[in-house]
Amino acid sequence: MKTGDLPQNPNIRRLIDRRFDSFKTWSGKLEKQITHLRGKTPRQTGPEDVVLQNSEFETIPVDRYYDALEGPELDTLRASEEILLPEDKKWPFLLRFPISSFGICLGVSSQAIMWKTLATSASTKFLHLSLTINLILWYIAIALVVAVFSIYLLKVILYFEAVRREYYHPIRVNFFFAPWISLLFLALGVPPSVAKTLHPALWYIMMTPIFCLELKIYGQWMSGGQRRLSKVANPSNHLSVVGNFVGALLGASMGLKEGPIFFFAVGLAHYTVLFVTLYQRLPTNKTLPKELHPVFFLFVAAPSVASMAWAKLKGSFDNGSRIAYFIALFLYFSLAVRVNFFRGFKFSLAWWAYTFPMAGAAIATVKYSNEVTNVVTQALAVLLSAASTLTVSALLITTILHAFVLRDLFPNDIAIAISDRRPKPHRKWFNIRNLSSEYSKDIEHYLKFRDSEEKDFEASVKPPGSEAESV
Description:
Keywords: Cell membrane, Ion transport, Membrane, Transmembrane, Transmembrane helix, Transport. The chain crosses the membrane at residues 93-115, 135-154, 175-195, 201-218, 239-256, 262-280, 292-311, 323-342, 349-368, 380-406. By secondary structure, this protein is mostly helical. The protein is 58% helix and 2% strand. The relative contact order is 0.13.
């Protein structure tokens, strides 16, 4: 017998071939997904250089994010899941730099607007505030926007697949509006000493990317499928609506009419649907976390900015503006009194995006106090402004602490490294102990032979009777 006993057991041989080919395919795909910087091949990799290869990933359905991740921001891996990149090693900085970093720009630039409003409003003149604070905050905000924009642009160029995965993430996708909203904030908060008026062409340039994003996002909400609104609704969706109202406010400030009204109408329609969807918490909606979180302050952002935008469009803080403002004020206090619900959550950069709703409510209160000037409205304006400033200051200190002391501000971004398929339960394909010792030795020889990449199968199997001859 030339081929030994193993070929006479086709079931065992098929099992061996199937398992080995499956292992070879999987390991080859994983090796391509985990590569190195500077164009190194997979065989040249070292533990410190791990990157995500662009061409090896498929579009991940939204259900995979829900299945694989958990937490208020869908950034924590479930215990039953695995990721494509090594979790025990620190990844390159750009891979760890999330789109939610633009929340810092939102927080600081909104502070520049708030301090400009406090310094120039008639109802807060008793504070005797200088526009110097606005000027300093505005320059800091510009520096932050330039820095974050530059870093994320490098990520787009070098690790486009990681950016694409963030775009398909049901929560991260809303932060793609944050860069453009930050630019709108900078335009609204520009100090009078820098520019008294801005050219209307600037408004069209900044609103174009917001319009393009909305065509995509709102179309998905309406057209159904896995990314319909009832499926992906979460409080961070307010970011996609706030851009409309901020754009309307800036456009009206520049003297424009039709464009700001258009964006205000689009924002109002989608905010109404979003508000109802989030408020009633549909039983089929899996994205809303059970825990309350500072993300819920985004409920306050849209009506606050909408009240100011409508006042600018109409020329006065009329009943329409007051209705939107009172809605924002009620939501603000209904969340603020539940302090205990905001405890026990780890810090993340996404928290910065929850600061500009507080600044928006403070600015709207200052505008309202200009129309209804009394001790109550003035005190409320000062109180909300102080709360917003203290929150931003606390987050700034916390961010610096995590960045330079704890050095954990940018942990491995698990959300971009989940597998595109649900992991299969581990099953042993056969128990080698249950086989005879002769078959075990033959299989061991067979596997060693396959690993050596030889062509001749017979060379890996012992000839019959070899043991008898040796005895």
